[in-house]
Amino acid sequence: MSTDPNEGHDPPPGSPEESGEDHGQSAAAASDRVAELEAERDALKDRWIRAEAEMANLRTRTAREVEDTRQYAIQRFARDVVKAAEDLQRGPVSLPASVLEEPEVISRLREGLGGIERSFLAVLDRHEITRQDPTGQAFDPNVHVAITEQPSMDHPPGIVIQAWSSVWLLNGRLLRPALVVVARAPGQQDGGKTTALQADDPPLP
After folding, report:
1. Which residues neighbour 164 within 8 Å (Cβ) at sequence distance 6 or greater?
2. Segment Disordered: which positions (predicted)?
């Protein structure tokens, strides 16, 4: 028979055994709580990162839309301006052919139109609106519109031999393609490239 008076009884409160169990439970609960808080922190951090990315995308998209709208408005205006520039370029064509002893009024008018055209083109150039003469270049469907083909013994097939308008660029990008006449080999059938032209739009000088 055992003589231990504590045998078969729970350890009294405050005993080392009970204190150890309570400490272990508290540590486990604290560890679980830390894990929960870390999970919440990670979730909040992830949502914050996503929100920041969405805001950055929104800012970029909004800025792009504003720029596209601005560029569209500029392009519409620029197309009208370059049409006026080409009309101005055709002005001297309506004058009599230059001769050695032409009337002074004609000479002054010719010089005046030339000066106005140069000033106008300088203004356009300051705003990154530039023109290119396609005459003599190989036909490029990206920047040229062929209004017709013409047999030629003097030019290889596919070369622009006459321009009804220039290639116009805005900030280095195509604003308006050139209307051109393209050389073809004699005897070769016309490719049938035509486009509507106004009667008052002669070829550029």
Report:
1. 147, 178, 179, 180, 181, 197, 201, 202, 203, 204
2. 1-38
> What is the dihedral sign for C-alpha 150, 155, 161, 166?
positive
Q: Contact, 163 vs 134, CB < 8 A?
A: yes
CB 106 within 8 A of CB 116: no
pLDDT tens sequence across 28-39: 788 888 888 999
pTM of the model: 0.60
Ordered domains of the chain (ranges, CATH): 14-127 (no CATH), 130-205 (2.30.22.10)
Neighbours of 165 (CB within 10 A): 24
How much is the pLDDT for 41? 92
Within the chain, strands assigned E span: 129-132, 144-151, 160-163, 167-170, 173-176, 178-184
Q: Is 177 left (phi over 0), alpha (psi -120 to 50) or beta?
A: beta
